[in-house]
Amino acid sequence: MRKSELGSAACSCSTASVTVVVPCHNEEQTIGAVVTGARRQLPHARILVGDNASTDATSTVARDAGAEVVPVPHLGKGRAVRRLLERCATDVVVLVDGDATYDLSVLPQLVHGVVCNGYDLINVSRIAGNQDELDTRPYRRGHEAGNRLLTGLQRWLTGVELRDILSGYKAMSRRFVTSLPVRSKGFQLEVEIASHAVALDWAYDEIEADYLGRPPGSTSKLSTVRDGASILRMILRLYRDLHPFAAFATLAIPWFAASFALVARPLTDYVETGLVPRFPSLIAGVATFIVAMLLLTSGWLLERTRSLRRDLLLVAASESERVADAARHTSEG
Predict the structure, then answer these.
(1) How far is it, in rounded angstroms, from Cα 320 to Cα 315?
(2) Alpha carbon distance 246, 312 (integer Å)
(3) DSSP states along 73-119
(4) Contact 92/61 with Cβ under 8 angstroms?
(5) Which of 7, 109, 217, 230 has the largest CB neighbor count within 10 A?
């Protein structure tokens, strides 16, 4: 659909309630442009800026630009987003970073995709420009390689069909936000959101938009090694949570193999001589077999727990939609 049609009277997204949440830490140079740009694209949207322990004038600049500022004193992007989402009860919630690197002209398209096309999550895949100029590269080389590696790993482990899982620009429906328990403290948030869409079988989509370089003097808060390692740990934990039986069965395989290797010789001796001269090997083999069975049992129990947890989240999301729909009909009546 053309952009001119996205806000037309015939399109239900023209009357949808929208909240734009912007977590940021020391972004006084860019947050004003982000708030102004979001207001230009979505004039009636509520804009919440999460000032995540900033030591500069981020809060002042955001307020002057017309945003509501929510102080988040404990440093960490996940913590900031958790605090912001607690204040959101609108039809659409758009998450965007406060570093002015994302193309805000696609905001109406994101709202349209959620409200009119029924998607619960729309991710914005970044198309980096200015790759020939080292000083204006949107991605640092380590970030670019790490993004490809971690995105490919999560696609393989969790089945998330997104090209840019680590993008900080996405739109979510109310029921998605209601059912999302943000556990991340830092930059692992993006992979947690993507996995949540798969865990609850929500409909999701991805669009492309330009990714711009930071202005001079503005620096990325993402550490390639430290945050990359924490994101990798989060991906592995999410794989365990999404597919617990498969994860624990994989852990059990070497224990079963060790058990077979340890028990094979004592059993052979017993068949041939009627004696068991290698009791230590037999005992160790039985012990490793017990460990393997405990891992399989843990995986099966966690699989059942995961199913129950998923049902509870779905019920909570459905209830929030019923309440919102009832309130809408009451106000219209």
Answers:
(1) 9
(2) 22
(3) -S--HHHHHHHHHTT--SSEEEE--SSS-B-GGGHHHHHHHHHTT--
(4) no
(5) 109
Instruction: Spell out the residues 6+ positions from residue 272 whose beta carbon is closer than 8 angstroms to its own.
Output: none
For a pLDDT cut of 70, what percent of the chain falls above it?
83
Find all residues with CB under 8 Å of 8, minimum gap 6, and list them. 14
CB count within 10 Å of CB 149 equals 13
Q: Which CATH superfamily is domain 3-239 in?
A: Spore Coat Polysaccharide Biosynthesis Protein SpsA; Chain A (3.90.550.10)
How many of the other CB atoms lie within 10 Å of CB of 66?
12
pLDDT digits (tens, 9 = 90+) for 115-173: 999 999 999 998 875 444 434 445 555 556 666 776 677 777 777 788 888 889 999 99
- The answer to whether the beta carbons of residues 154 and 195 sit under 8 Å apart is yes
In the numeric block, the tokens 């936000």 are attached to 177
- What are the Cα distances from residue 169, in Å, to 19, 103, 151, 179? 13, 9, 15, 19
Instruction: Give pTM, 2 decimals.
Output: 0.75
Residue ranges of domains in the chain:
3-239, 244-332
